[in-house]
Amino acid sequence: MTTPLKKIVIVGGGAGGLELATQLGRKLGRHKKAKITLVDRNHSHLWKPLLHEVATGSLDEGVDALSYLAHARNHGFQFQLGSVVDINREGKTITLGELRNEKGELLVAERKLPYDTLVMALGSTSNDFNTPGVKENCIFLDNPHQARRFHQEMLNLFLKYSANLGANGKVNIAIVGGGATGVELSAELHNAVKQLHSYGYKGLTNEALNVTLVEAGERILPALPPRISGAAHNELTKLGVRVLTQTMVTSADAGGLHTKDGEYIEADLMVWAAGIKAPDFMKEIGGLETNRINQLVVEPTLQTTRDADIFAIGDCASCARPEGGFVPPRAGGAPDGYLRAEQHPGADERQTAEGIHL
Q1: Range list for CATH 3.50.50.60 in the chain
Q2: What is the DSSP string of 85-124?
Q3: 193 three-class SS
Q4: Contact between 84 and 285 (Cβ < 8 Å)
Q5: What is the pTM of this model?
Q6: In 3D, which of 43, 251, 46, 269 has the Cα closest to residue 142?
Q7: Tens of pLDDT along 255-291?
């Protein structure tokens, strides 16, 4: 009697999920040792740290995005388009929501996908900390759709400026969050202005642009050494970016940002890139333990605390260190530990926090 293949389902095609599916597909899927399935709500993958380049137009999503279907075919795994709406831990199935087209017509009905091992790799979204007005007035850069929206609104502002030759004042753009996304977007905006000027946007120069970068902490790029943070601050200042540190935004409206210090930062376009949280729907999914920012709480083996057959990796997972603090997410690259699919968990924290032993 043939033993059925072990079903490994990975939810989320970001850096961590896609790399894991690729590695397991090569190691197990191609050799018929397991059935590997990747689930994502999008047809293609675009590395999230590049979204600021899509937003400013310096990167062509159509050229640089990776098709999940094509990649799955080439690397020994299967791809399912859809969003997870439920996890049945007793029946060991996940439910994928129905798919509809832009007209609202049903394409694929709600369906269930069985698993033996489930890996949640859903990444993170921006955390607005329930700041009033942010959802309504700021753009987030969590996915290509939002990046395209920013790009279109930016082009509209620059077109209006060029048509009126600046008669209505400068283009004011405010960015909240001094992490990598906020810093890179601030710098890339000036490159976008130069490019658009060369394309014929009359009067559009860096003097036409007012960029304000707002950071609540003591310095931008807080995860990097102070020397690098300081150098980045200086470079942005040279470009003409107004960098505000130790400045907390208390609310946003259609015309700009209100700060705790009482300043009102006028802005035609606002981006919120401060803080992260796991997607809201994960808060109660499957009865799994989550923390205050919706991350799944995991053991050092990356198994969730309430179900040993469900793992979580990357920004959607929270792994506490025995000595205190948390293991940082490492979704950018899946190491060899991911490949040991038949090995029982039992390595030390450093090994298991970097790889899944299924």
Answers
A1: 6-124+278-354
A2: EEEETTTTEEEEPPEE-TT--EEE--EEEE-SEEEE----
A3: helix
A4: yes
A5: 0.84
A6: 46
A7: 999 999 999 999 999 999 999 999 999 998 999 999 9
